[in-house]
């Protein structure tokens, strides 16, 4: 069903989507959002560090990354044709791309990282129109598991790249700085209030830098390199790109995961901005995921890691009540300006190892918990328990026993070599296997086209409750069926019973109505006022038009006097 | 959906406005009744009519046709004709049919009466 043309602002939102807050509010909120997003700069930093690049090179790449975040935030907030949800939904670097990018960095350097990032962005954009249909393949237990494994594999990959494969002994000073940094972040997050809690990661980073400089972890010649970095400069664009089929699986999974996360974040934006929100509006979700994919393509082109919508930033908008698109423009401008200030990325580029580890652990904790929450958002029956448990074990086994990958046939290594990919493949396979026998069906016979709408409504409500179907979807299906039978009984029915068969399989609710009589038309355009007023046929056409909009898909067929209408509802 | 679905039509007069209150379900079996009632009010020379849909549980296309025919009749006789009480599911149905712009709609009965059924 289409979204209302105008939306009502919820009471907790001070500045709605199209409102213009005062300049000071806009700028301050823009800065707050940048502060919340900044922690995720640790992901590209880790990848560039893994390649032992110079601080200058890292700073230049981070500058390009900031430009990408700025443009990506604009792309999401603007509505350029089919691209962009139009929401205040800033972009950030994502943990999702960390493990695949580290893998690509080790295998083919920056050229492969950026080439595969372009591939992932293009795939995400291509998937955008089909997200609804992918929901059956990626139910919450599978998508939650993928996100959990992204956090786990990203954390392990980051630690491995920092500490080496054998986790070489860490000097006591680094332990102290690391614990102090992580401790500050956690303490402010758990016990802090207001800005202290909101900017816990940023404050922790500053504490880590201060502790590193006091304990001598940042050496003076590196600091002087930062001091000599100019205040204003242009980021250099790394031009080489390459593609490796062996890397396609991890990047494709990351791409799917970012698409699902973007869809989730945009749904939060819809709810936040509309007091009368009923169900996700797929049009803005598709446009948002398209923008997210386009931003990742741009990241690959400009020399940055894949991006994704920032859920914490959207959470900040909900907390402050400032959801105006103008704030997104402020965030975009601040990031773009930061892209031309090389001193800042240079300072980030010299981030000492224990500070990076602390920031990484803090960031991936939330990713992992987010995954756990999604996994457990539905009742964990035996089917879901087996999917989650076996897939997690498969993923962890790859990390614990690297020999599994080494001894696998070369063709299977892209799958078996990555904990994220193997866990996802296990979860997808088991989910498909367990879908056998999930579909449930119920039938209602209405004799002699004498429908009792209460009976039809009760039938849907009873079946919906029995199957655990969402009440809003059941309500739409019940209304559609009542309206259809009302129109059919009035103008199409000839004789015999009208049979309503409803089937449900967690992701799809299908209603099939069969009767002996002529076909009802389902026009795409509303009949004219004259047509509706002119005769009963006008009411029939209006019924058909409304039914087309009520269901997610409508199919009508007729053979030998028997007509059938199929309504499909996405659940 | 099972309770209070029988159509009831009420009529009161407030500040010179004839307020018709509809409640229950309106479909092809009873839309004719609504149309006849509204047409007879217009034919009787009523110059300001407000239809309050606050008690309606749902309506089908037959009901929309009845309301549109009444709107047409009112226009012919230069009478003011407006709707109020469109909330929740009923408002959603108007949106679904792309019908909101075809009627004069007020957020509440009080506002509709204050406007005398006019926009």
What is the CATH T-level topology of chain B? Transcription Regulator spoIIAA
Shape of chain B: globular
User: How many whole angstroms does the radius of gyration of chain B measure?
Assistant: 13 Å
Which sheet architecture does the biggest sheet of chain B show? Answer: 5 strands, mixed
Specify the biggest β-sheet of chain A. Answer: 5 strands, antiparallel
Strand order of the largest sheet of chain A: 3-4-5-7-6
The total of helices of chain A stands at 24
Mean residue pLDDT of chain A: 90
Q: What string gives the helices and strands of chain B in order?
A: EEHEHEHEH
As for the number of domains of chain A, it is 3
Computed structural class of chain B: alpha/beta
Distance between the termini of chain B: 32 Å
- Continuous helix count of chain B: 4
Description:
The complex is a heterodimer of chains A (571) and B (119). Chain A is an alpha+beta fold. Chain A has helices spanning 23-37, 42-50, 55-77, 98-127, 131-134, 140-163, 172-191, 195-198, 200-214, 220-228, 248-273, 282-302, 311-320, 325-339, 343-349, 353-375, 382-400, 403-406, 413-416, 419-434, 453-467, 471-491, 529-534, 536-550, and strands at residues 91-93, 307-309, 440-446, 493-504, 508-517, 553-559, 562-570. In chain A, a hairpin with a 3-residue loop joins β4 and β5. With 119 residues, chain B is an alpha/beta fold. Chain B has a single domain, classed as 2-Layer Sandwich (Transcription Regulator spoIIAA), CATH 3.30.750.24. The longest helix of chain B has 16 residues, at 61-76. The model of chain B has no long low-confidence stretch (mean pLDDT 91). Classes of the chains: A alpha+beta (571), B alpha/beta (119). The A-B interface holds A 1-2, 4-5, 278, 453-454, 457-458, 461, 475, 478-479, 482-483, 486-487, 489-490, 526, 529, 532-533, 536, 538-540, 542-543, 545-546, 549-550 and B 1-2, 5, 25, 27-29, 58, 60-62, 64-65, 68-69, 72, 89, 92-93, 95-99, 102.
């Amino acid at each position: 069903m289409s979204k209302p043309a105008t939306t009502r602002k919820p009471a907790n939102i001070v500045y709605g989507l199209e409102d213009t807050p005062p300049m000071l509010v806009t700028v301050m909120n823009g800065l707050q959002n940048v502060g919340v997003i900044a922690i995720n700069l640790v992901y590209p930093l880790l990848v560039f560090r893994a390649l032992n690049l110079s601080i200058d090179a890292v700073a230049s790449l981070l500058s390009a990354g900031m430009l990408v975040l700025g443009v990506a935030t604009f792309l999401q907030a603007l509505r350029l044709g089919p691209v962009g949800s139009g929401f205040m939904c800033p972009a950030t670097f994502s943990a999702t791309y960390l493990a695949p990018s580290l893998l690509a960095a080790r295998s083919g350097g920056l050229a492969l990282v950026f080439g595969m990032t372009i591939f992932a962005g293009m795939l995400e954009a291509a998937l955008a129109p089909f997200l609804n249909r992918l929901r059956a393949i990626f139910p919450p237990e599978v998508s939650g598991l993928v996100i959990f494994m992204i956090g786990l594999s990203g954390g392990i990959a980051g630690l491995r790249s920092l500490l080496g494969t054998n986790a070489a002994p860490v000097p006591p000073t680094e332990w102290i700085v690391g614990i102090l940094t992580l401790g500050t972040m956690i303490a402010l997050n758990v016990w802090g209030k207001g800005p202290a809690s909101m900017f816990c990661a940023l404050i922790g980073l500053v504490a880590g830098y201060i502790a590193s400089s006091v304990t001598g972890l940042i050496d003076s010649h590196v600091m002087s390199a930062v001091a000599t970095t100019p205040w204003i400069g242009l980021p250099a664009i790394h031009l080489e790109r390459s593609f490796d089929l062996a890397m396609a699986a991890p990047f494709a999974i990351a791409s799917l995961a970012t698409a699902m996360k973007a869809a989730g974040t945009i749904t939060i934006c819809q709810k936040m901005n509309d007091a009368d929100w009923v169900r996700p509006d797929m049009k803005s979700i598709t446009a948002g995921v398209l923008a997210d994919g386009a931003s990742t393509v741009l990241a690959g082109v400009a020399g940055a890691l894949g991006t994704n919508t920032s859920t914490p930033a959207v959470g900040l908008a909900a907390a402050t009540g400032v959801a105006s698109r103008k704030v997104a423009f402020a965030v975009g401008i601040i990031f773009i300006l930061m892209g031309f200030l090389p001193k800042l990325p240079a300072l980030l580029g010299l981030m000492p190892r224990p500070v990076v580890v602390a920031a990484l652990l803090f960031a991936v904790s939330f990713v992992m918990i987010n995954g756990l929450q999604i996994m457990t958002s539905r009742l964990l029956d035996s089917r879901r328990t087996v999917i989650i448990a076996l897939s997690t074990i498969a993923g962890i086994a790859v990390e614990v026993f690297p020999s599994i990958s080494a001894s696998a046939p070369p063709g299977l290594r892209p799958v078996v070599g990555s904990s994220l990919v193997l866990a996802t493949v296990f979860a997808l396979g088991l989910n498909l296997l367990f879908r056998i026998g999930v579909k449930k069906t119920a039938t209602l016979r209405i004799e002699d086209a004498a429908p009792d709408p209460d009976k039809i409504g009760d039938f849907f409500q009873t079946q919906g409750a029995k199957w655990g179907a969402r009440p809003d979807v059941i309500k739409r299906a019940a209304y559609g069926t009542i309206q259809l039978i009302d129109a059919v009984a009035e103008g199409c029915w000839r004789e015999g019973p009208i049979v309503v068969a409803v089937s449900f399989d967690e992701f799809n609710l299908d209603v099939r109505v069969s009767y002996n009589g002529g076909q009802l038309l389902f026009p795409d355009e509303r009949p004219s006022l004259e047509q509706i007023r002119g005769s009963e046929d006008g009411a029939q056409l209006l019924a058909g038009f409304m039914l087309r909009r009520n269901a997610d898909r409508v199919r009508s067929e007729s053979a030998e006097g028997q007509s059938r209408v199929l309504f499909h509802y996405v659940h | 959906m099972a309770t209070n679905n029988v159509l009831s039509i009420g009529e009161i007069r407030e500040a010179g406005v004839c307020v018709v209150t509809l409640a229950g379900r309106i479909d092809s079996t009873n839309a004719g009744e609504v149309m006849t009632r509204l047409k007879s009010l217009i034919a009787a020379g009523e110059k300001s009519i407000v239809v309050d849909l606050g008690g309606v549980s749902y309506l089908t296309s037959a009901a929309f046709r009845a309301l549109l025919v009444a709107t047409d009749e009112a226009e012919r006789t230069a009478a003011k004709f407006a709707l109020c009480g469109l909330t929740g599911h009923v408002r959603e149905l108007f949106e679904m049919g792309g019908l909101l712009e075809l009627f004069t709609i007020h957020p509440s009965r009080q506002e509709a009466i204050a406007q005398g059924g006019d926009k």
